[in-house]
Write the structure tokens for this entry.
Amino acid sequence: MNPDLFREGVARLRVEIHKVIVGHEALVDEVLIALFAGGHILLEGVPGLGKTLLVKTLAQALDLRYSRIQFTPDLMPADIIGTNVVMQDEAGRRFFEFQRGPIFSQIVLADEINRATPKTQSALLEAMQEHSVTASGTHYDLEEPFFVLATQNPIEMEGTYPLPEAQVDRFLFKLRVAFPPPADLVTIMDRTTGPDQPAPERVAAGATVLAMQALAREVAVATHVKEYVARLVRATHPDGEGASMARRFVRYGASPRGAQALLLAAKVRALIQGRANVAFEDLRALALPALRHRLILNFEGEAEGIDPDEIIRNVLAETPELAAGVRR
């Protein structure tokens, strides 16, 4: 695959998704960036904003197997992974046969992930990190590409189990779904209450997605750009190298996975923008979704209700693109 075909594929996917999804242009672009970066997404927003519809529409536009898992407090790991079932052949002999669960798909919607117990969340964790699952001592590889989009409601917290930091860190992006403006809300009503229900066409297959993911990893990154990523991540920590807000409000900063996520996503954005190398603007554009969920606030930050986005903006403002004495 070449860069022109990459941009054409992204543009076609964007068109098909927007046949159903009204507005949310930046959100759709960030979902596509995460897809072609090979990462997973945590979608946060109140009910009714189209989070589930967005994932379903993406699955319809791609020739990939799709499954939805509704997380509830009584959901068990076997409900996700699958379980061994006693079967009987024609001769009456009984044997165990593994019945695969909904995780054996390529696009998995984990709806309201924070409503499941930590034990069940951990079953999803292995699949996200390893792209494989283990059941009764047997290892099963998941079919590539494998993409998890999890949703959570930030308001209704009763009966929920907050995601552990180790699991949150495995999401490439955390995306916030905003309420639509009045004009978009009118369009949504027109599309959803009329006689015709819009539907996207399938415009890409699994092999195409894998080729696009492989091409993204080949994008060049200059040394001083990689050093900027490292300094951005270091500046989220409360030690001597941290930005002013990080030193005051952060208990733990972003992990090395944050640097990996930011750089890999920036490679995809560079291709979409028609460039063969990562620029500083790519990093600034994707710093919020790549890092916001990796900051752990201290007591003062929690007490004052500090938004991690404010801290990341402060990090961007106080971290120079070039280290002292370095020239482009």
Notes: The first strand starts at residue 41 and ends at 44. The chain has a mean pLDDT of 86. The two ends are 30 Å apart (CA to CA). DSSP finds 14 helices and 13 strands in the chain.
